[in-house]
Design brief:
The chain is mainly α. The chain is 70% helix and 6% strand. It has a single domain, classed as Non-ribosomal Peptide Synthetase Peptidyl Carrier Protein, Chain A (Orthogonal Bundle), CATH 1.10.1200.
């Protein structure tokens, strides 16, 4: 049991778990921001009734859901920006550099 507890302390497993849980929570917040706030505004600007996710392109019998892809892309970009600026603000990018 002592070896297991030493492993958890030395390897930062608790910090990794906290980061994983917070990452999931941030992902949900960003997904809601994109779905409930950004997509309706972009839908109005692009002339799609109500929501960007409903935007599509019809090519014969095929319907390509462009809006859904754009919504997921915006979701990714917002999460990437939050992670980037969070790492920069906390100075975590300097931890791996040799002194």
């Amino acid at each position: 049991m002592k070896g297991f507890l030493d492993f958890i302390r030395e390897q930062g497993v608790v910090g990794l778990a906290v980061g994983f849980i917070l990452g999931g929570a941030i992902s949900k917040v960003v997904a809601s921001l994109v779905k409930d706030i950004i997509n309706p505004f972009l839908g109005l600007i692009l002339g799609v009734a109500g929501n960007l996710s409903s935007m599509s392109l019809k090519l014969g019998p095929v319907e390509i859901m462009i809006g859904s892809f754009v919504a997921v892309l915006i979701d990714f970009l917002v999460i990437a920006a939050v992670v980037y600026f969070g790492v920069k603000k906390l100075g975590l990018d300097k931890l791996d550099k040799k002194k």
